[in-house]
Amino acid sequence: MAVRVTMADVARAAGVSSATVSYVLSGKRPVAEETRRVVEAAIADLGFTVNTMARSLRTGRSSIVALVVPDLSNPFYAQLAASLQKELRPLGLHVMVCDTQAVRDEERAFLREAVQQRFAGVVITPFRLVAKDFQTLSAAGIPVVVSADLPFGEADLVTPDARAAMRQALTEVTGAGRRRIAMIAGPRDATGGDPRLELLRALAVQLGTALPGRLVVRGEHTREAGAAGFERLMRMKHRPDAVFCANDVVAIGASVGRSATSGVRTRTDDRELLASRSARSFPRPMMTN
Asked: What CA–CA distance (Å, rounded) separates 6 from 33?
């Protein structure tokens, strides 16, 4: 049976203390570059691996940070996962991505798992959760960061500057003489309603136009809902001349729906208004002229 290499073995081989080896592994304290290289060389030579189970028992916390998102097919969340891993890896932490498909039971199940497994933290874009759902995480001392348009109780919040982005887009649209504004919005039962819809309505009034209720269609944040919503808008007697979408995935679906709708003239610059930068990682659909 092979003898397991310990941190003490690495320390002896590198001529440093076990504490220094621990600092190199965890990144929690600065270590001189030359010392770090010596320790890393000893780790490689000896084939040392961290016993994460033992460390979890000792610290009462795993090295896992859960990234809980409603739709992993959205390229924004893939970018978020990569960025989060890049920041956490030097700290000895790892990202586990959890796709809830915007289902409340799945969202709650992942939160329970975080408490049971004593995750190091949770980063989440909630879709159908409410603030009280985070109480068990708080009671367990697990840090939570919420990525959303609205706050969720006392959880730390990271939010986009939706107002500035939407004002810029709407200013461009109205500046081009378009006044029949429509939106493919999210479902009615999403937590907190649909703040982007309400924001667009308020900004439309400020810029001298409006977003009438008849030009708002709803659906899940999926490409299918985007395509169906756009086709529904284009079948109206008085069609809109500008369509806003709840997010990138819906916008891509709307672009596909547009290409499938006969008699609709399209331009490449329209797509730039529909989709943000992250949506461009999707294949570009064929457009009709």
From this structure: 22
